[in-house]
Amino acid sequence: MTEGADAKGRPRAAGMSAAEFRELGHRLVDQLGDFLAALPEQPVRAEDSAPRIRALLDEDAFPEQGMAPGVALERAFTLLREHAVSTAHPRFWAYIMGSPSPLGALADLLASVINPPVTSYPTCAITVSLEAQTVRWLARLVGFPTDCGGLFLGGGSLANLVAMRAALHDKAGWDVRAEGVRGPAGAPLCLYASAESHTSIVSAANLCGLGSNAVRKVDTDRSGRMRFSSLVQRIAADRKAGLRPFMVAATAGTTGTGAVDPLPDISALCQKEGLWFHVDGAYGALAVLSPDAPLELQALRLADSLVVDPHKWMYLPADVGCLLTRNRRVLYDTFHQGASYYADSDEQFLLGGPETLQLRDLGPQTTRSLRALKVRLCLQHEGRAGYARMISDDIRLARRLYDCVEAEPELEPLTHGLSITTFRFIPADLEPQAEAHRDYLNTLNKALLKRLQRSGAAYPSHTDVEGQAALRVCIVNNNTTLADIERLPSLVRRLGTEVDAELRPGRQNRTA
Predict the structure, then answer these.
(1) Residue 346's pLDDT is what?
(2) For strand 276-280 and strand 321-325, is the pairing parallel, antiparallel, or unpaired?
(3) Does position 185 have pLDDT exceeding 90, yes or no?
(4) What is the DSSP string of 71-94?
């Protein structure tokens, strides 16, 4: 009998014996442990050219025949270790993608090896019950009613889509499932989000058949916060024009600047106007745990639907998002679709028990992974107190960066919201007339960002603040230290001076 085969000679799953799986797994965990230990001393990003990447992947190396799993795994580890950007790096500050908890990674491994169905209680009661309980735990963590509905999804973008579809079902005024989004009423539906809302709101409108023009973009202030007076005016104008508003999608933590919309005011307006109050809290909802967070976040509990992304500020490996709904049965009413090959849910779960629940009845996905497991394990490990401490640390580090930038010559702080700080480099000779040199300063700061990223020393990203190109540092990284933050301003100033000298070669060089 060959290795990896059973007594009848049939190859075992994926051609690997239990002993070989154990050996490869132990080796990989050891390698990953060494990788994490060495990561702070490594560059955030390798400088790889497009031809180099093509050569590494070798398009002609299609596997007509198989190879030993150890060889394949070792090659993959080497590729990622030497060429991938890791969000675990303490100076990765580009995206709202948290540093991955090692326990979360182990939870993913556990869930992947067992690979249980997460579809219906009759099929696998423990996974469905585990997810339902973890949804309630996450609601409790952020102060949302724990008798809510909800489910885990692939991330905030998909959760925004599911929330919008539920809002249509609840607020359109006709049977959207049967009649479509135009329906018999004739009046076009519309919804409201700030100009700084996530692009997934517009994508959701497109996927729901509303079209991007149905999303009314509301003005924001300098920080990126929705102007409430503009929202009131837009709703009134649309009603007068014969449109049918049905939803406001507020943001708790914008991607660009970390701004939090005026949630209490928006909630009261939605109640008055009969609109669905949705909060995209994919990034910022968890900040409600911190005493340093805006008080407006307390109004999360008033939302009809709320998005939370544990793979952001719970420091979990991607991907996992969660949608919470105040109305326990709205997702069931929106998505339930019977078929001869599915067991039907009944309404017991609406009364508090999951005993006949099929999670596929609550969203668009049938086969589902056990995403809830890593959320559950990491919440059990850290507890509310642990997450409150880590999130507060990130917010305070971002505030410290703002203060350091303010104290550094030739750097101008622009915004600070939650754990995001934005700023720009202004050469000393241009500072007195910075507005007159806006175009050049935008070019300079964009080039500076590329230089900084290529250096491997730090990896921020960019945003736009009232037409000003800004460097954006987003800290959802529990590996980031105060020393990492305090070194950044002088590094930016030094690289900015170099780039400025290259862009204005006739200008006398100066030292930083």
Answers:
(1) 57
(2) unpaired
(3) no
(4) HHHHHHHHHHHHH---TTSTTB-S
Distance CA 96, CA 478 (A): 13
| Phi, psi angles (nearest 5°) of residue 494 | -65, -45
**pLDDT category of residue 74 using cuts at 50, 70 and 90:** very high
How crowded is residue 461: how many other Cβ atoms within 10 Å of its Cβ?
Answer: 20
Output the CA–CA distances (angstroms, integers) from residue 453 to 121, 182, 333, 460, 478, in the order listed.
Answer: 48, 47, 47, 7, 20
Angle between helices 156-171 and 199-207 (to 10 degrees): 50
Q: What percent of the chain has pLDDT over 90?
A: 81
CA-CA distance, 399 to 376, in Å (whole number)? 30
> Residue type at 237?
A
How far is the C-alpha of 215 from the C-alpha of 463, rounded, in Å? 22
Q: How far apart are CA 452 and CA 473, in angstroms?
A: 12
This model's pTM is above 0.90: yes
* 8 A C-beta contact, residue 370 and residue 377: no
The two three-digit tokens of residue 329, written as one number? 């049965």
Residue 384 has pLDDT above 90, yes or no: yes
CA distance linking residue 509 with residue 78, whole number of Å: 42
Partners of residue 470 on adjacent β-strands: 463
Q: 261 vs 39, 235, 251, 355, CA distance in Å?
A: 36, 17, 6, 39
Please report, as a single letter, which amino acid is at residue 49.
Answer: S
Q: Alpha-carbon distance 148 to 327, whole Å?
A: 6
Detail the DSSP E strand segments found in 122-205.
Answer: 149-153, 189-194
Determine phi and psi for 420, rounding to 5 degrees: -115, 130
